[in-house]
Amino acid sequence: MKKTKYGFMIALGILALVPFSVSANGVCQAPTANAALELDGCKSGDTLILREVHFDTDSARIKETSFDFLSQVASELKQNPTIKVAVQGHTDSIGAADYNMSLSQNRAQSVRYYLVSAGVNPDQLMAQGFGLTEPLADNATSQGRAVNRRVELKMVGTLVLSEPVATNVYISTFHAVPSKLVVPAGSQVTWTNYDEISHDISFDGVDGTRIWTQGWKANTYSLQFDNPGTYTYRCSVHKDANGTIVVEPAVSEYVVTESPVYPGQTTSSYKGDQTITRVGS
Questions:
Q1: Which of 78, 102, 158, 261 is most enclosed, with most CB atoms within 10 A?
Q2: How confident is the model at residue 97 (pLDDT cuts 50, 70, 90)?
Q3: Residues 106 and 216 reside in one and the same domain
Q4: CA–CA separation, 122 and 113 (whole Å)
Q5: What is the pTM of this model?
């Protein structure tokens, strides 16, 4: 459930020839004259080199020849509104380091401004300048300097489109209610135990995540879900005390379960009131 950072390593020689990176789980490529931008296979940490973005010399002014290309980028980002990216500017080593750092930052901001002007959600975009600090090739040659002058689009995470919520799951008669809960990313889920014994609940694929609850005490445990995905949990002893938390960037409705008033004993008549609120209503 904790945010995970994925590393991304690229062979410098390949980058000099290929204008995009490819994700192992699908297509992730920058737009070219022969191919449109594809973000479906991109994951956090992937970087696309936008070789068709050019600027006036010693300037952050984007050349008009780059506009059609950037419009492709804007269109794909609008079709993938939950992808958050960093527009990153890089320079060659000609000139002072401070000058290049400022130039790269201004160029990244210019690209961000263009994309926002084309309708991309500003919250999807951040601008970063790296100056001459991250070369891909040898700055001693004109070819190497040309490779190093670039704009990159780096996948940096998921944009949450719904407000996080605090919601509940309760356990009684050795069952979790509701057994499936859909929440937006960033939400906190609280489990409350109404059984006369404890439940030892763990999540698939997450070592050491335990929910210990003390019977008859209506003890609770809370866990925050930051990343979209499906998280399945179960009690290691009582197999019916299981469920699924589905975390999405945005949800169309909120389902809030109100735990029953604790009666002091387990009963099959336990019922929790559920309130469904449509987003925007």
A1: 158
A2: very high
A3: no
A4: 9
A5: 0.59
